[in-house]
């Protein structure tokens, strides 16, 4: 089984990647498997910039192919926030719960039909001596007025999918892996690898 290194310490993201890559015959390793490597500061102004920064740095340090993900929630009524600050929206040392409660608070007076949002995922695949590949994926939805569901992580409990009448946190792992922003980005990445990036591995 081939190994892919994912540039994250986020257990929820690792679980997402495992559910998507295991059926393809890949074993996943993350930054949790490399405790000697310090957290990489995300200084980019876009999801793509942050993903490239993380992937290229780790590929150089580990001398192996690395996939980095930078993803987050974009809320139209909040002018695109929390965006690249999704993981630290309520402050550097705050939790997923603090972040989603801040979003709910800021949308308190916004009508349901105006609470449109999307999850956005940028992926970068970097390897020593190779040109970095970037792709992205999205999923459209609305921000609910309250939390629903216990699956997933981050903003999943308040991200409502009207066509399913469920929040992302009410989906099974199989359902989520079929339609999430990360799943869509990974599908795009696998298509690119099939066409021009097989030599990465």
From TrEMBL:
<feature type="binding site">
    <location>
        <position position="70"/>
    </location>
    <ligand>
        <name>Mg(2+)</name>
    </ligand>
</feature>
<feature type="binding site">
    <location>
        <begin position="8"/>
        <end position="13"/>
    </location>
    <ligand>
        <name>substrate</name>
    </ligand>
</feature>
<dbReference type="GO" id="GO:0009117">
    <property type="term" value="P:nucleotide metabolic process"/>
</dbReference>
<dbReference type="GO" id="GO:0035870">
    <property type="term" value="F:dITP diphosphatase activity"/>
</dbReference>
<feature type="binding site">
    <location>
        <position position="176"/>
    </location>
    <ligand>
        <name>substrate</name>
    </ligand>
</feature>
<dbReference type="GO" id="GO:0017111">
    <property type="term" value="F:ribonucleoside triphosphate phosphatase activity"/>
</dbReference>
<feature type="binding site">
    <location>
        <position position="71"/>
    </location>
    <ligand>
        <name>substrate</name>
    </ligand>
</feature>
<dbReference type="GO" id="GO:0036222">
    <property type="term" value="F:XTP diphosphatase activity"/>
</dbReference>
<dbReference type="GO" id="GO:0036220">
    <property type="term" value="F:ITP diphosphatase activity"/>
</dbReference>
<protein>
    <recommendedName>
        <fullName>dITP/XTP pyrophosphatase</fullName>
        <ecNumber>3.6.1.66</ecNumber>
    </recommendedName>
</protein>
<comment type="subunit">
    <text>Homodimer.</text>
</comment>
<dbReference type="InterPro" id="IPR020922">
    <property type="entry name" value="dITP/XTP_pyrophosphatase"/>
</dbReference>
<dbReference type="GO" id="GO:0009146">
    <property type="term" value="P:purine nucleoside triphosphate catabolic process"/>
</dbReference>
<keyword id="KW-0460">Magnesium</keyword>
<comment type="function">
    <text>Pyrophosphatase that catalyzes the hydrolysis of nucleoside triphosphates to their monophosphate derivatives, with a high preference for the non-canonical purine nucleotides XTP (xanthosine triphosphate), dITP (deoxyinosine triphosphate) and ITP. Seems to function as a house-cleaning enzyme that removes non-canonical purine nucleotides from the nucleotide pool, thus preventing their incorporation into DNA/RNA and avoiding chromosomal lesions.</text>
</comment>
<dbReference type="InterPro" id="IPR029001">
    <property type="entry name" value="ITPase-like_fam"/>
</dbReference>
<keyword id="KW-0479">Metal-binding</keyword>
<comment type="similarity">
    <text>Belongs to the HAM1 NTPase family.</text>
</comment>
<dbReference type="GO" id="GO:0005829">
    <property type="term" value="C:cytosol"/>
</dbReference>
<keyword id="KW-0546">Nucleotide metabolism</keyword>
<feature type="binding site">
    <location>
        <begin position="181"/>
        <end position="182"/>
    </location>
    <ligand>
        <name>substrate</name>
    </ligand>
</feature>
<keyword id="KW-0547">Nucleotide-binding</keyword>
<dbReference type="InterPro" id="IPR002637">
    <property type="entry name" value="RdgB/HAM1"/>
</dbReference>
<dbReference type="GO" id="GO:0000166">
    <property type="term" value="F:nucleotide binding"/>
</dbReference>
<feature type="active site" description="Proton acceptor">
    <location>
        <position position="70"/>
    </location>
</feature>
<keyword id="KW-0378">Hydrolase</keyword>
<feature type="binding site">
    <location>
        <position position="41"/>
    </location>
    <ligand>
        <name>Mg(2+)</name>
    </ligand>
</feature>
<feature type="binding site">
    <location>
        <begin position="153"/>
        <end position="156"/>
    </location>
    <ligand>
        <name>substrate</name>
    </ligand>
</feature>
<dbReference type="Pfam" id="PF01725">
    <property type="entry name" value="Ham1p_like"/>
</dbReference>
<dbReference type="GO" id="GO:0046872">
    <property type="term" value="F:metal ion binding"/>
</dbReference>
């Amino acid at each position: 089984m081939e190994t892919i290194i994912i540039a994250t310490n986020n257990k929820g993201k690792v679980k997402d990647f495992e559910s998507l890559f295991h059926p393809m015959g890949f074993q996943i390793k993350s930054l949790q498997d490399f405790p000697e490597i310090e957290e990489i500061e995300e200084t980019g102004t876009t999801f793509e910039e942050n993903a490239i920064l993380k992937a290229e740095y780790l590929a150089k340090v580990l001398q192996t192919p690395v996939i980095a993900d930078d993803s987050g929630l974009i809320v139209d009524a909040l002018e695109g926030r929390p965006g690249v600050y999704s993981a630290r929206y309520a402050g550097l040392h705050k939790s997923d719960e603090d972040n989603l409660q801040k979003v709910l608070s800021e949308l308190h007076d916004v009508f349901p039909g105006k609470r449109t949002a999307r999850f956005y995922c940028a992926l970068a695949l970097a390897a020593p001596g190779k040109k970095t590949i970037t792709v992205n994926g999205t999923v459209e939805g609305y921000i609910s007025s309250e939390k629903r569901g216990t699956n997933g992580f981050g903003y999943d409990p308040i991200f409502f999918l009207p066509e399913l009448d469920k929040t992302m946190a009410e989906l099974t792992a199989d359902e989520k892996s079929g339609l999430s922003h990360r799943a869509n980005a990974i599908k795009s990445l696998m298509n690119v690898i099939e066409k021009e990036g097989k030599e990465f591995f």
